[in-house]
Specification:
The structure holds 2 protein chains of 2 kinds. Chain A is mostly beta strands. Chain A is 9% helix and 40% strand. Chain A contains 1 helix and 7 strands, in the order βββαββββ. Chain A is elongated, with a radius of gyration of 15 Å. Chain B is of the alpha+beta class. In chain B, the strands form 4 sheets. Chain B has an 8-stranded mixed β-sheet, with helices on both faces. In chain B, β15 and β16 form a beta hairpin. The N and C termini of chain B lie far apart (53 Å). The chains are: A mainly beta, B alpha+beta. The interface between A and B is medium-sized, with 19 and 25 residues.
């Protein structure tokens, strides 16, 4: 991957982007146990596969979601969180 | 002339000596199965046999031995860490390394060079002082030195770093060394093989059989093996193995790249590290400059190389050594670093009975090869981890008792 498609600014060089880690849903902090919370804080799904990740387009200050395979490093699509996914960029041309 | 050489003069049969026996297929069962034939796994097999008399052991390697991160690191051995637990642990490793060529009867080209961690800012100097004091307290030879002493040890270094990042001082660590990394794997492999352990290359673990929270066997591409004890020592493949037993860990994989230049006459005696410039460099016994940098900035399970890396690294190298501008980079490669949040390894027992972990070796695994083999062998033999690795247990995350070593990582990651 050398190019990435920002949902707001189109396809840009990877050097303009910062990796923000996997998108994760946390447990309810009012009801979860200490062990569940510690697991959420520290543990990650480290095995390779298709993942939903946070990425940041630094020049424009845009946080967005990229769906990427961490084994092949191919991005299947990028979109703003909460946006209608049908309008998302299919980033196939940027997945090289 | 020794007789074993003389006999070749009259014989037409000149078999190449083998370091370890090759076996058709694994046996039906073993006392211990070690996944991963890198330095750590092979050292564990060696010490299981040597220290504990456990020889019914199989080391399963899906590729060839030492072909993973053992053969991809920049071969630096040091113990100038930040936490007393870390310094004690890595110091024990350095002490074994110093006598290892003799013990394994194999020249590992272990060469003590002295190790300078350069500081370009006041805040870096503060960390160097902190590390020096912790090191001295534990009995490890480290001290803060000024630019004069650095210039004396390495007169070729531009102390102003092209005016970009003038060097204020350094942490000097006398025992800092380099060694032939593949030799370490081969030496331990031969040692383990001679004592009775079996090494199976091209043998991939496909699944691990766990019943009632206990390990009872592993499924491989060469058949099923019964065993009650499994050691996972696979560095960048750790998440794939831990997923087989539903064990969650904080490990995330980032590639770590390195490269070498064409060989030169020896000129660089010491090992130099610059955290700010993201460079570590030493000259190998073949004359190549071996150089490494910081981690790739995002998760990928791949050993691909990038041009960005060489461009960035070499530009910083030229800040330090402008005269190298015509020297060619001849080879670059990457390893998959299994990173932990606190930059300390994960070693010892797990909630699954009989499943032991030796992982989270990120960018600091090679130097720990002997001591991790020794302590993991102890852990398996006694089913209890020794005090030396207590701070590296997996449950430290649940207990919020992290072992913060980020400040001792060779470059700012």
């Amino acid at each position: 991957m050398k190019l990435l498609t920002c949902p707001m600014n189109g396809t840009r060089p990877l050097s303009e982007f910062i990796f923000g880690g996997e998108y994760r849903e946390g447990p309810d902090q009012n009801t979860c146990t200490d062990a569940e919370w510690a697991a959420f804080v520290h543990n990650r799904s480290g095995a390779p596969g298709d993942k939903k990740e946070w990425w940041y387009h630094s020049p424009s200050g845009t946080w967005f979601i990229a769906e990427r395979n961490t084994l092949t490093d191919k991005v299947s699509r990028t979109y703003l969180l909460g946006a209608n996914n049908n309008n998302s960029n299919t980033a196939q041309e940027a997945s090289k | 002339m020794p007789l074993r050489l003389l006999k070749f003069a009259v014989s037409k049969d000149h078999p190449a000596p083998r370091f370890f026996k090759s076996h058709e297929a694994p046996k039906k069962s073993y006392d211990v199965v070690i996944i991963g034939g890198g330095g750590h796994g092979l050292a564990a097999a060696y010490y299981l046999a040597k220290d504990h008399g456990i020889t019914n052991v199989a080391v399963l390697e899906k590729g060839y031995i030492g072909g993973g991160n053992t053969g991809r690191n920049t071969t630096i051995v040091r113990s100038n860490y930040l936490t007393p637990e870390g310094v004690n642990f890595y110091d024990a490793s350095v002490k074994i390394y110093e006598g290892l060529s003799e013990e394994l009867d194999l020249n590992l080209f272990y060469s003590t060079r002295g190790h300078f961690t350069l500081a370009h800012t006041e805040s870096a100097m503060r960390t160097m002082r902190w590390r020096a004091e912790v090191n001295k307290h534990v009995g490890v030879e480290s001290r803060v030195v000024g630019p004069d002493e650095i210039a004396k040890a390495c007169p070729q270094l531009d102390l102003s770093c092209s005016g970009q990042a003038p060097i204020l001082g350094a942490l000097f660590h006398a025992p800092g060394s380099v060694a032939r990394h593949d030799g370490v794997a081969w030496g331990y492999a031969r040692g383990a093989d001679r004592l009775g352990a079996e090494i199976h290359q091209n043998t991939e673990v496909l699944a691990i059989d766990v019943k009632n929270g206990k390990v009872c066997g592993v499924k491989t591409n060469k058949g099923y093996i019964e065993t009650k004890q499994v050691l996972c020592a696979v560095a960048g493949f750790t998440p794939r193995i831990t997923e087989m037993v539903d064990l969650e860990t904080p490990i995330v994989i980032h590639p770590l790249q390195a490269c070498v230049t064409e060989p030169m006459k020896p000129w660089l005696d010491t090992i130099l590290v610059s955290g700010s410039l993201h460079v570590y460099v030493s000259q190998s016994s073949r004359g190549e400059l071996v150089m490494g940098s910081s981690l790739d900035p995002y998760e990928v399970h791949s050993t691909r190389s990038t041009l960005d890396f060489v461009e960035g690294l070499t530009s910083h190298m030229l800040d330090m050594f402008p005269f190298l501008s015509n020297v060619k980079v001849v080879r670059q490669w990457a390893g998959m670093a299994d990173m932990t949040p606190d930059f300390a390894p994960i070693m010892g027992k797990t909630p699954i009975e009989g499943f032991y972990i030796d992982a989270g070796w990120g960018t600091w695994g090679f130097k720990a090869t002997p001591i991790s083999g020794k302590t993991m062998a102890q852990t398996i033999a006694n089913d209890s981890a020794p005090d030396l690795i207590h701070s590296f247990r997996l449950s430290r995350f649940e207990d919020y008792e992290l072992t913060g070593e980020k400040g001792a990582a060779s470059v700012g990651h």
